[in-house]
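Let's practice the habit of predicting before peeking. Look at the sequence and jot down your guess about where helices and strands might fall. Then scroll down.
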Amino acid sequence: MEIIILESKQELGKIAANKGAKLIREAISERGKANIIVATGASQFEMLSELVKEDIEWSKVTAFHLDEYIGIPVTHPASFRKYLKERFVDIVSPKEFIYVNGSGNPYEECTRLEKLISNHPIDVAFVGIGENSHLAFNDPPADFETGNAYLVVELNEDCRRQQMGEGWFPTLNEVPERAISMSIRQIMKSKYIICCVPDLRKAQAVKETVEGGISPVIPASIMKQHEAVWLYLDQDSASLIS
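Done guessing? Here is the structure:
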């Protein structure tokens, strides 16, 4: 895991997007196409706003979506489908964007997504780390063993409080208790991982991820087993690293 500490979240977004874009262009150059994973949440604002400005042949890119709440419509302000449509898909028009649909039968949706992603080996995964060290919506203790590509997961209270704290929901009771999430093993199959983690509220999770052992209790720690991960931090999120 290569750790890059920038002065601000704006610089973090720009440098991370530039690195990710370079890797996407390399995949297109080598294979004529690229497959990527795109994350959501407040931690991805700056990176996504820069990524959409990059010179990439988006018509050769297929993108997958990491996770989505179960039971909220695409029109809901907190919907990750809405987030990605407005901040990414409508701007760059990729060849295909495969959304996670949390509105129907979640188990059938997991099966549908698994079939699709099995035919699209991932070149670049853009991810973040939650305040409880979750990776996608894999809250601690995360399942490091399942071979399923997508899972129906229960969101713990720390995770749900983060979603409320970021302003997506007015009260804790309105935050869904379940979601569909890409699994840990599926994320780890990605050739390259770009992980963007700004803000002071993520400092403890970053410290545990970087300095602790590899454990399901610290889901993001699994990335230390990957051969090509870039962890982008700002001064705030890096503030507790020894």
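How did you do? The chain has a mean pLDDT of 96.
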